[in-house]
Specification:
By secondary structure, this protein is of the alpha+beta class. It has two domains: about 120 residues, no CATH class; about 80 residues, no CATH class. It is about 60% helix and about 15% strand. It contains eight helices and four strands. A four-stranded mixed β-sheet has the order 2-3-1-4, covered by helices on one side. Helix 1 runs antiparallel to helix 2 and helix 1 runs parallel beside helix 5. The longest helix has 29 residues. The protein starts with a helix and ends with a helix.
């Protein structure tokens, strides 16, 4: 009965921490529900697997072994972004840490470690003290504006059409047959979260009269 009580306490504590991390730190920052199911399912299953191991050493090894398998696979049919891979590592490591520490009866250290993880991730997601710069690839049709002497016009046109405060522009491949050029625009991520979280990496900008051609 005591073992079952410890199991329920450990599972409840681990799941609450994972839920707080996903629901109140990850999701408000990304509004991306695609990985919520994956994160919570991984966390729960790994904890259950560890709970049926008779040895803590074996359990910890199996836990990190499962994470190593997930890292190798990386869902190759749907690559996971770096941010989500970081959360996946934390979500997979939490049940390993919580299970081992709960069975070793080091609850003060365990609670402190979990609170520290939540606090650090919260600060990083809120970008306190950080100024992140992000980029976007653009297929642009006004090829005459890429000349160095017309850089100001190019920047003004891109800002007017994208609504972004562009910091700098890099010119990539130029297609003279189609009169298009691939540009990479850089801007501060803060205030443009909807742009930063889109899945499509390339934005095509064409004038209205060209789109009908």
């Amino acid at each position: 009965m005591e073992n079952f009580t410890n199991f329920l306490l450990g599972f409840g504590f681990n799941f609450i921490v994972a839920l707080m991390l996903v629901r109140f730190i990850y999701y408000p920052s990304t509004h991306n529900k695609r990985y919520v199911f994956t994160f919570l399912a991984f966390n729960t299953v790994i904890f259950f697997v560890l709970s049926f191991m008779t040895s803590i050493e074996i359990g910890v090894g199996v836990g990190f072994g499962l994470f190593a398998i997930f890292s190798i696979l990386r869902y190759r049919t749907d690559p996971i972004p770096v941010r989500e891979m970081t959360y996946l590592f934390i979500i997979a490591a939490l049940p390993v840490m919580n299970f081992a520490s709960a069975n070793a009866n080091v609850w003060p250290q365990l609670i402190t470690a979990n609170l520290a993880i939540l606090a650090i991730m919260f600060v990083l997601e809120k970008e306190w003290g950080f100024n992140y710069e992000t980029s976007r690839r653009v297929v642009y049709e006004k090829i005459e504006l890429i000349r160095p002497d017309r850089h100001a016009e190019l920047k003004a046109d891109l800002e007017a059409r994208t609504g972004l405060a562009i910091k700098r522009i890099n010119i990539g491949k130029i297609n003279f047959l189609r009169d298009t050029v691939e540009l990479t625009i850089y801007y501060d991520e803060r205030g443009h979260e909807t742009w930063a979280n889109q899945d499509e990496p390339v934005l095509a900008l064409y004038a209205s009269d060209d789109s009908d051609a």
